[in-house]
## 1
Amino acid sequence: ADDAPAWLQAAEAPAAPADDVPAWLQGAADAAPAAPAADDAPAWLQEAEAPAAQPPASDLPPWLAAEAAPAAAGAAASEGGLPSWLQGVAEEEPGPPSPAARPAETPTPIRSPRVVEDENDSQSFLSGTELPSWLRPIEPERPKGEQPQEGRSLDWLRSLGDSEQGEEDSVPRVSMPVAQREPPSFQARPDQVLAAGLLRQLATTPYPAPIAPPTPAPVSRWQRIGLDRVLYGILLVTLLLALFVPVVTQPFQTANPSAPGAAEVGALLDGLDGDDVVLLAYEWSAQRSGELRPLEQAITSRLMAERTKLILVSTDMQGTLLSFDLIGPLRAAGYNREGDILLGGRDYVLLGYRPGGELALRRMAQDLRNELRSDFDGQDARPGLVASYPNGDPRFTGIHDLSMIVVLADTPQDVQGWMEQIHRAAPNVPLLFALPQEAQPLAQPYLRQPGVYALAGQRGALALLASDPQGNTQALERSTGQLSFSVVVFLLLLGGGAIGAAVTRRRAPREVTGGR
């Protein structure tokens, strides 16, 4: 307590003598306060206790001397008589006075900026903490228009926009004179003018009155029937007449019909015997039965007469079904049959359908015995007598060991496939094509090669039957007479139909105009 001033000791010990307490404190304890002496208390305390008394200017600090006396008294009373730096209140640094309060003639003081050069300085060490304004380092004043630190992160966007704007401004803009083009003038052609006038006339003219159609000319009975129906009827009657009345066809009958290559084919078929193997391919459809069925019968009858062994195959779906029709005649001729016992694979093998077209032909050309592994019934035909001798030796090793190949084809494409795949692999094996009349001219380039033969249509079948010394002569003559008579009648009807059509077309315009 010795180091405390006398006025504090008097406050803690009220029983102290009155002479030890300052006058301004004794006055506060008494009922009638007395003004403290000016020499015992500081000037700011005297001002707080006695606001009415105006202290001398020498006793006030500079920050109080700059303010007006009434404003300083009110601020000291509100703050408890202490400055802001003693109370510990973090106040912002007072900004510059407003233009209204600042005299116009007083220049603005320029602060000297403090530049922190060393990052290890104490101010940089405390730069991340929140400090009151009176402890913060003085920052240099920013020029007018400069943004604060927190707004500089977007400066690159503004600078980018400013640079683009500067580039646009830096590019000189040249104003090009725009030539005023006159609108093109169009001049209508005479035909367009005529068409426009006709269109205008049609738009203004009302619809004409409907005209009654002319009365059709009377149609005769022959015209209602039609010339084509008449010709078809005549052809049908003549064919039936030739079929049931053989005398009508007698002038056209002949015992020696001829066809190119028929004699050579007959000689080849007669030279086969029971030890020879012939590959018979069905590559035709049912719509060609009228021409290919007589050829099939003529060829198979010569083969069955010599008991030649056959391999039946087809790469056509309809041809596979047509090959089944030959099973009955083969069994009737004794093929694969010994009394009532059926012996599969003894005289013929039915391979059936081989898919793939030319690929199937290629497989047969490469290895024919491999195709006999499975016939139409799924049995292995290689141990049979068609593919092997009774002692087990193979009768043929490939397609080049066959005695003859017969192909019943209805299109030139079939001829091309067999020539390119089969005949190329076995050029020394005779190859016979049975074709319709319309396919022979298109396949003629392939048929001119050596070892290749062809018979076309019903005439080729009759020529092949005529080359058989054991053939039926009367049936052959009747067939040749019917065929020749039918051809003659067809040609006559064709010529008569052409003449009748020309006359009908010539009379039709005259009847429409009313002329006779």
## 2
Amino acid sequence: MSYDYSSSSATLELPNPYKVQNQALFLSGAVLFCGGLSALFTARNSLAVIPLVLGLSLVLLGLVSFAVAAKRLRFFFGRGRPRSLAPEIPPTATGTSPAATELKRLLRDGALTYPEPVGAVDGVLYHWFPRLITAPLAVQTQARSAFFNLCAMLAATLSFIAAWGVFGNAGNRPLLSIAYFAFGLIFLLRPILGAGKAQLNIRTLALLITITVVGPALFGLISKAIGAVIASALSSKGIALAELSLAPQTFMLLISGTLAAALLLLSALQQVAPPPPTQTSMEQLRLSLNVPPSLLLDELERRMQEQWTERIPNRRYARTTPLIDPSRHSGPFAGELLEESQPTPMQHMVPASIGQAFNSRQHRFLTALDLYATALVAIATVCAVLFAHGSAPGVELPLKLFGASSIFLVVAGFCFRSSALLWGRFNFESVITWVEMEGTYQTASMGTGFTAKVQTSNQIVRTEAMTLRVWRARIESVVFGKEGPRQITAMFSTDQESRELAQHLADFGRNRSSMVAPDSPEDMKRIAALAHAERALASASGAPSLADIGLAAALAAPAGQMPAQIADSGQKAKFCRHCGAKNAADARFCQGCGEKFEG
């Protein structure tokens, strides 16, 4: 989607909301890049595989961090953004959609709909934070997922501490640490990294409790049964059984993941605001008009165009033209128009530095989450560099450093990705208008004229007691990311504007003429020619013609009355001595032959 530029206004230019996270990403990228260069310098002389691979991986991660931040240095919104609330209807087309029907329901009911929480964990979360139910859906999803993952991490951490520290011993602790590390990778970390929930339910929770109590004894029996075989196999390679313990890696995995889930939950909860207003305006009129109802729809479209925001066309979601069947004397009709003005950004504070972000309630924990991720990146880089230096020939290979580096990098990536969704929040405001008209029409013929010789006939459409409803509201909406779906978060009534629009349409319909009359200069010439022809007919019958009384006097005469010139013409008539035509008393020329009267 391209960016539409207009020099008349800079309304669509938004401040970059990713400023603080970009700073954290640039810092993390610099740390990773420098660590990668250090590992590559270690492998420059010996060309050892491990330092070479680690150095290349760190350099690549650093460049990826730079690239993510560089893509978000500037932020542009075109006219097509944010997304529309429903599929748009082209200007010359008619139609609607299910999403437009939902918008009509929102305007009619004046209520926003949110999904109810499902599950025991969600029930606890919404019980502790009842305002969360009216938060944007993206915030609710983030909070529910973070709370569920936090519960899963806490349960696994407590279970591991009890099994390893309370019931464990030197014989079963290595196997316990391996089992919990595998459980954390499969059931906790892997689903969380996939932007989902940890695979923790009642069955897995019961399994954790069972392993906490019975696991040490079970692994003790296993170690006794196969301990001799494992010990002999490891001793042949010079490795002790205690060296296989993954307790440090398991603690790092559970504690770092728990802290990340807690910060993410707090960040999502800070996005929750008090319950929003949900008020709409409705103006209803009952009209009886002698014009087709489609004229009101045309005038409504002109009126809406006059009120375009920043001269940007409205987004049309539904349009139905009231159809009139000329072959039927009467019948029902219905028409509607649903449009939204161009959404404009709302004024809100975007922190430009880490200090400003910590002073903002909405961004405080988001900043803490990004700084925590940056710290994990720094620790992981140090561990990776130490591992690269320790892998040289003749030096003992510290595997625990590699495990710690991998875990911290994975958790840091999860923190950056999760916080990016909440950083990319944009609030917009716009006006949505829905006008509907319905009723019954009747067709009729109406004839008008000046005399029996000059008449006009009109085919009129009359609507009796037509219902005109105007629904209008100023709405606030939110979108997370440039391409994310938009959701209405608040509605405000606009009673005065709704009343003015309804009254404007009513006045327009009442002031339309239902009679056809000639008004062009060419029509006036032809009427004069017809009047000349009528004089000839009037001279034979003795009745006054339009030429005698004047066309203007005939048009100005009240209905059912003759002008004074007509009434007096029969009392003092003047007859031509040449052709015998009857003329008005004050006529100077004969209307029949044109002879001038003497005296």
## 3
Amino acid sequence: MGKTILKSSCFEAGCHARCGVLIEVEDGKILSIKGNKEHPFSQGFMCPKGRAFREVVDHPERITRPLMRTGERGSGRFEPVSWDRALDTIAERLLENREKYGAESLVFGAGTVRGNHPHINRFLANYGSPNFMSPINMSGGPLIMGSAIISGLGIIGPDYANTDCVTLWGHNPDQSFPGLFMNAIKKALRGGAKLIVVDPRGIRMARKADHWLQLRPGTDTALALGMINVVIENELYDRDFVENWTVGFKRLKEHVKAFHPEKCAEITGVLAEDIKAAAITFATAASAALGPGMASLCQQSNGLQIGRALTCLVAITGNLEIPGGMPKWEAPTGDYQHFGPHHDVCMNLPKEQADKQLPRATRFPLWNFMPLTIPCETVWPAMLEGNPYWVKSCGLMASNAMCAYGNSKMVKAALSNLDFLFCTDFFHNPTTLLADVILPPAHWTERDDIEDSIMQNHVFVCPKAVEPPGECRNEKEVLSDLAQRMGFEDYWETVEASLDYRLKPIGLTYQKLKEMGWYSIPVRYKTYEKEGFLTGSKKVELFSELCESMGYSGLPEFEESFESPIRTPDVAKEYPLILSTGGRNVANFHSSLRNIPSLRKIAPDPELQINPKTAQSLNIEDGEWVYVVTRRGRIEQKTRYFEYIRPNVVHIPHGYWYGKTDHPDDIMDGWQRINVNQLTDNQHLCPATASVPTKAMLCRVEKIIN
């Protein structure tokens, strides 16, 4: 057999960028993976994660056979079993618990789901459970909710390539999405586009920006309202758009009078003249693309409000649905796309059962209006206390929940309290060690898939290049087998059948798309002129009667974080520094790949970024290991002097679990000494979206006295 070249999309560790690659295969083995220079986004780029693929697939710690627990939960004792025994066990336990506790007692959880979102939702619909858990409230959900309420659009896809003003608001594409965004940003800047960066840390892009607004963490909404104030008071808004396509402008104008630049400077720590200058640059650009950080802006206790405020800013400056602004990206697959409403589990359940979805059944009524997965913060009380009912079974796919979510002590207690837990993952991690059954998944090079999530107007193919090692299997195939065992009639029998189904809107089969590499449709602009906006009024609702009817404010409001020098000054006396967490590193995708040697060299230790002046005032040296303490716990971090961070702010990365000594024995215990979610809070949530306040807390830093 000769060499073949496959066009594909890298999906290492579930990274959303999906850089285009060429896979060279000979005799059933991958010879190389290289960046595809013809790809519309990545244009030949590959990050260290993608280049480390061989270390992942051949890693000696990779799980290649199904495992069943033999010791106490958390003991780490498992034995290999056959697929039949593993799947029969899962099917029996899930059916037993449905009979005892009701279908809603099952929760599926996933991190980036490796393309399995539609399959999990269809499985749950057949089972009868409305509960598919993901970190949606930590990544994108509040922005989508906030912007959709106002405009019917989700403002997470800026058109950087054609813009006159790149605005990175809590967004660091250098590290988070280089293949997806950086070529477009570079093109815009080469063409003379202005650059605005809003970030308390001096990321690389901030240091080359025309305007760097180094705000106090947690004050983004106040800054956005202040910029709206400048735009309106200086009459820089798009008068035609505002008069013809918005409702509530007069109320918004009156509302933001309280957020004049001097007041915003007092709140945010950004100079008033800098706020004015950035707002004027944004408003006077022929087009402006605002890139919001999907994690940094959502992980605040007022996540809905920042999403609404930014949408108001984009809308009144005329940047909705224009080239170089915030287009209405339409996936070729339409409602059948990865996160499309066609796959929403609640749309495929009787209303009585759909209304049992955990956010709907608790205090988050916005979930009635949007086809989103559910936040884990509504799940843990159901596992621990039976509130509002008991969750007894859970399946986790690509989800190291104990390390990834806020308040890891609660997460561990909740998962430990389950009747039954099964996981799929490449490697053991602190979460899999709590499982009853562990299933070994295929790598992205070892399975067939398509990618259309956050892919603008494209759908890309990700074909199987080689057979998986050992007994690893495609998770879609596993779900089909499990569905058949459980008697589900409305489920795909094969992986290819499911992919053909997703491609129905464009009349392609998976095999045909595999020949093409990707498929694109034209981008439509100003569709509202014929169709209106997807709101009740068919206009942009700067004032939202929907929000007001549910008990939320009709206009975006600023609220201090649950802990801050302003809101809790007494707490600040004991914990004087502002702690922000979760900045991305290009070598890792959240908690994934922490045990890959080449990537460990790039980011070997969890590093506390601290201003040298702050560190020296505490007699702390660069590179010294220290304690970081909040009201919720204490962990160890290695200090790294960083002169471009605000003096009263420190930053800790997320996702570390492979312990300080890199020894496998550290998997269960060592992570508790270094993982930042030992310190984070998951109780003070956004009342609308359940977003978590992990970007703005209070802490202190202490020397370790031996």
## 4
Amino acid sequence: MILTNRPRIQRWVPPLLLMLLATPAWTESPAVLHHQLDITLKPDEGRLFVADRISLPDGARARYLEVVLNAGLQIVATNAKAVSPYGIAEGNRRRYRFTLDPLADTLSISYEGTPQAPRRSAPQAMPGVVLDSASVYLDGAGAWYPLTGEHPVTAELTVHHPPGWQSISQGARLEGTTTTTRWRSEEPQEEIYLLAAPYRFYSKPGPHAEAQVFLRTSDDPLAQRFLDITDRYLDLYSRLIGPYPYPKFAVVENRWETGYGMPSFTLLGSRVMRLPFILTSSYPHEILHNWWGNGVYPDYASGNWSEGLTSYLADHLIQEQQGRSADYRRSILQKYADYVASESDFPLREFRARHDGASQAVGYGKTLMFFHMLRRNLGDTAFRTGLRRLYRDYRYRSAGFEEIRRVFEAVSGRPLAAMFHQWVERVGAPAIVLGEPQVRDLQQKGFRLEGELRQSHADTPYRLRVPVAVTVADSDTAVWSIVELDSASTRFAITLPSRPLRIDIDPRFDLFRRLAPEELPPSLGQVFGAANLTVVVPSGASAEERDAYLLLVAQWRRQFPGIRTQEDILPLPENGGIWVLGKTNRHAASQLKRISAQFPVELGPKLKLGEEVLTEKDLSLVLTLRRSAVSTLAYLQVGSVAAVPGLARKLPHYGKYSYLAFAGDDAVNVTKGQWPVHASPLTLQLTDEKHERGKLPAEAPLIE
């Protein structure tokens, strides 16, 4: 579960500094600037006072130095000979040029004021700058310290804060009192973070790093759960990739419901921290970002690969360890099918950060599948070696897809340019069709299965290694083969020890591809991801119920701005995604009848979904139905009007599911699932009888 994007500093590189820095490219040996910051926070006044001493390394010493500082901060002292502001403020920033002694190795600046917040793209996101009586949040995008260009920084912070507060930054916590905290970050960083609030502080030393928890209210059991599991994840990823790169990992409770990953800490919302599944989903994802994203920095100009690789080695790896990786990959392909239309697709090299379902399906999902296919092509040993080499060679430096390619070519001895090009540079996904196979009896030599695989998409064929599983008589285990498909179509022949009963193409969803409609159960993702989305409101609803539904629509419009509404006196649209709201809706009875005819659901005093019988009171119910190839419908029946705000917030996060039930006014999920998929054009029975698929070869996890 990825809740929000990690906020990123918006880079500004002064032209003069680019000439001063000997090696501005992070992929080489960059010059590092050190900030010695003494900070006094005045949260009740919304102000801060900072003295910054910037150490300039050899090669970055010159007569002039340009910086950017928040426009709400005023410079009150400097050791420079002169300082000149550059024009009017640009957004929340102002540029300055400092005239230095030619031999100066430091620039000292003192400044104070109320920093202005940068503009955030999402209206529901937390502010970019927070400095009030409840908490402090400052990052590079807020320009609260002098930004000196796109190159790494180290820092030491002495933070003076109100009594009883705690401050947090990256790196090591040197000391802390009731009014002062010191932090030191010796690792080259993209930006400097500063957080503070009246936190309750917990810590636990460990073999890889100190685990820390900062909570807004005391909760010893919650803190202990995070402290205990942190060691496990740090050990897992240290064994898989290499040493953890920071002296601590901290969990920080936020006022806003975020899931941000920063160097050596994560900023989680209060509700997020207490979700029962968070410790085995989003939490390892945020920890792993300290290897990919905050350890090896992605070269954003050539594509943000770190989200996909982090998802693969966190979310996917955990499912793999539990034997559910194929289901997880199918959900990735399902999200791509649900949310990504041709006009919203883009190549991986253009991904920077997610901002909607389509960008997440490509930037996270397609990149995840790319690394899975790379692993399958090279084998686990070479893939693990490549991960370790990538981390070793590029720690605290930037790497793009080109650098990743060279690393994996070096460890495998195989050319990978064609593979990287087709998945990183191309838009879209292949679609595979299975032609009618033929079975030949070879008498005493067994059987031969002959067939054809085609790529049905219109553009240039992909080069694919297609897994094929054949179920045979007298064996519980399927015969596993790889068919090389590098043209529009190819013939294949598989020799078998006994009569083939069934053939399955890509049965474990190892390829990134367009799923056929028959492979997909109806889902909320198909409704939310439709180009046209309509919400049908019951005309006979009470005023209270109608107001609740309209608020639900208003909240969804923030994420899906094209939603339109209509009353149930009108016929349902012929295409697009459709929400039918309320059991008094005139369309409810007919759609429920269609759902009950296709899927195992019974409505009555006791609700039955599949094999599960639900008896909770005040149940809210969501059911989906594919009406046609171009339309999917979702029906929502609420247990109480008070549950609607919670449902409005939660339902977009359940995109892969076909049915859901929530209990009570707080809309607590009590069951969820997908309707069964009964047919796939990539599965064919080869006899008159129906046969279950034979067991597939064991899929060993990348690391236990």
